[in-house]
């Protein structure tokens, strides 16, 4: 039986592992940490439970694929629940609940006049048609060589995406009201890119949120990581936790022949790296630069990296019933705030996101208490020495003050009984994300689609990649897709 080694039990690694094991290979996953899921991680302490990374479930049909495609019913592994309203957004202190009922949602735009309503419908139609194009020609297709992209059909479709303007510029063509624009602009931050300079194609994120809705996994996101692990083990796969891969071993013919781990060498016919692509090239492949192809170690450092996150996990001995599942608080100067983050500056008036799962699921906190997650987008560590604790403390105090004064959580600070934080340093060390860039390589125009690192290495045989920094990109459903595409590449070759 042919053997495949997988580096990392993140969502990309586990998905690839399930498809490959199901196909008939003997797959062994090596994970440095003690749990599945990578950034889809969990903290359980003092009676509180926190999802530490992803929280917003979009495109639930993609989550179901690894189960459906291996012949089982996903409902036996995890339970999905629709969320409505899917988000509360605070702009200038005013709360707007975004409904997943399109009729209710449209009334927000209609209330600003027929012109805004028409703009909203045009915006949806325009981005939906681009999404159809991107889905069929770019997202669910993997690229190996230039011929896969530089052909007449694909270039025409790429041109039709008209992705050269920024998300915000494309949005502004249709929507004139600044508050309404902001309602549709912040979602590109979900993949760590600014709406003010990220390619307009990423407007598909708010479009999918508005037209397909947002879902919740009962018991929390970590249930999904546990579900993937369960399916993989059922199929006969093996996972070695607390086992770090120290090298992907490449022979003199430039073929990957296995992995060196803290528990010894493991030989295999193919290696799938789910560890973040830039980290993997920089740290796990020890061959001369000229054999590395396009992505040399020198080039890796010059690439653009996504933002990072500062996340507070607060155990609170009070139930803030007015706080919904997902809340966004936008800075008064949203563009200035995003620019500050891109320029390595701690924001004075931050935009941030709050997740309050206790509002719909009582497994997160003791009764009448809440487990609250506050995510503040911040700069990654590229170009800085280290995380600046004093500035972070000031930022935290600022955020708690805003939550009390603007979001109606008046006595929040008095009720905090448990506290923990993840910083860019945590992402760097806990998950090996280069520069602590939580969403991996930034999806700029020249780091997207064909121009993102491919799922198969261009010069090293039998080496493949699944995860947020490679094609098609970051976000749980997209990373699941990456795992599927990568497994197909391995199967094609083996
Ligand atoms: C704070 C946060 C919020 C997010 N919110 C959302 C959201 O709401 N919705 C959404 O869809 N997406 C969200 N995302 C994005 C999404 O979580 C990620 O894109 C996705 O989980 C990345 O999966 P991955 O498999 O690429 O990588 P990872 O999760 O990073 O997994 C890589 C794995 O490899 C392991 N590893 C690394 N090096 C080694 C080594 N040398 N040896 C062995 N193992 C190794 C790591 O420990 C890790 O387990 C969020 C991400 C973050 C961080």
Automatic annotation (TrEMBL):
Keywords of the record: Carotenoid biosynthesis, Oxidoreductase
Pathway info: Carotenoid biosynthesis
Transmembrane region(s): none
Record carries keyword NADP: no
Amine oxidase domain ranges (all copies): 11-491
A Gene Ontology molecular function term of the record: oxidoreductase activity
EC code(s) of this entry: 1.-.-.-
Record has Glycoprotein as a keyword: no
Pfam families in UniProt: Amino_oxidase
Similarity section: Belongs to the carotenoid/retinoid oxidoreductase family. CrtN subfamily.
Protein's name in the database: Phytoene desaturase family protein
């Amino acid at each position: 039986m042919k053997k495949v080694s997988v580096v990392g039990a993140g969502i990309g690694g586990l998905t690839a592992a399930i498809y490959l094991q199901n196909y008939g290979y003997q797959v062994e996953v090596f994970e440095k940490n003690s749990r599945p899921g990578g950034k889809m991680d969990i903290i359980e302490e003092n009676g509180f439970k926190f999802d530490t990374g992803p929280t917003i479930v979009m495109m639930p049909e993609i989550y179901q694929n690894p189960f459906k495609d291996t012949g089982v019913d996903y409902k036996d592994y995890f339970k999905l629940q629709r969320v409505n309203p899917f988000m509360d957004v605070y702009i200038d202190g005013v709360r707007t609940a975004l409904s997943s009922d399109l009729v209710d949602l449209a009334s927000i735009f209609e209330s600003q006049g027929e012109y805004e309503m028409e703009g909203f419908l045009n915006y949806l139609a325009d981005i939906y048609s681009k999404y159809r194009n991107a889905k069929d020609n770019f997202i669910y297709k993997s690229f190996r060589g230039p011929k896969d992209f530089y052909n007449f059909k694909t270039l025409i479709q790429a041109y039709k995406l008209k992705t050269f303007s920024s998300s915000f510029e494309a949005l502004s063509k249709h929507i004139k009201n600044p508050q309404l624009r902001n309602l549709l602009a912040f979602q590109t931050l979900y993949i760590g890119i600014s709406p003010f300079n990220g390619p307009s194609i990423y407007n598909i994120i708010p479009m999918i949120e508005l037209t397909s809705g947002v879902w919740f996994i009962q018991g929390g996101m970590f249930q999904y990581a546990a579900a993937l692990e369960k399916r993989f083990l059922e199929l006969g796969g093996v996972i070695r936790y607390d086992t770090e891969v120290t090298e992907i071993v490449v022979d003199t013919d430039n073929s990957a022949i296995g992995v060196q781990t803290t528990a010894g060498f493991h030989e295999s016919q193919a290696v799938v790296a789910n560890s973040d692509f830039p980290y993997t090239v920089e740290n796990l492949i020890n061959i001369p630069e000229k054999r590395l192809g396009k992505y040399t170690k020198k080039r890796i450092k010059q690439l653009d990296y996504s933002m990072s996150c500062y996340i507070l996990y607060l155990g609170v001995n009070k139930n803030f019933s007015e706080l919904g599942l997902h809340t966004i608080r936008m800075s008064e100067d949203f563009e200035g705030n995003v620019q500050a983050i891109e320029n390595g500056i701690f924001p004075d008036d931050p935009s941030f996101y709050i997740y309050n799962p206790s509002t719909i699921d009582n497994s997160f906190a003791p009764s009448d208490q809440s487990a609250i997650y506050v995510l503040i987008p911040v700069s990654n560590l590229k170009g800085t020495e280290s995380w600046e604790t004093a500035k972070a403390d000031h930022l935290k105090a600022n955020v708690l003050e805003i939550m009390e004064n603007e979001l109606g959580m008046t006595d929040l600070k008095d009720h905090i009984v448990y506290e923990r934080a993840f910083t860019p340093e945590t992402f760097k060390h806990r998950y090996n994300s280069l520069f602590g860039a939580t969403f991996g390589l930034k999806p700029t125009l020249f780091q997207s689609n064909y121009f993102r690192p491919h799922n198969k290495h261009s010069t090293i045989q039998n080496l493949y990649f699944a995860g947020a920094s490679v094609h098609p990109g970051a976000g749980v459903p997209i990373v699941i897709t990456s795992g599927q595409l990568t497994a197909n590449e391995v199967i094609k070759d083996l």
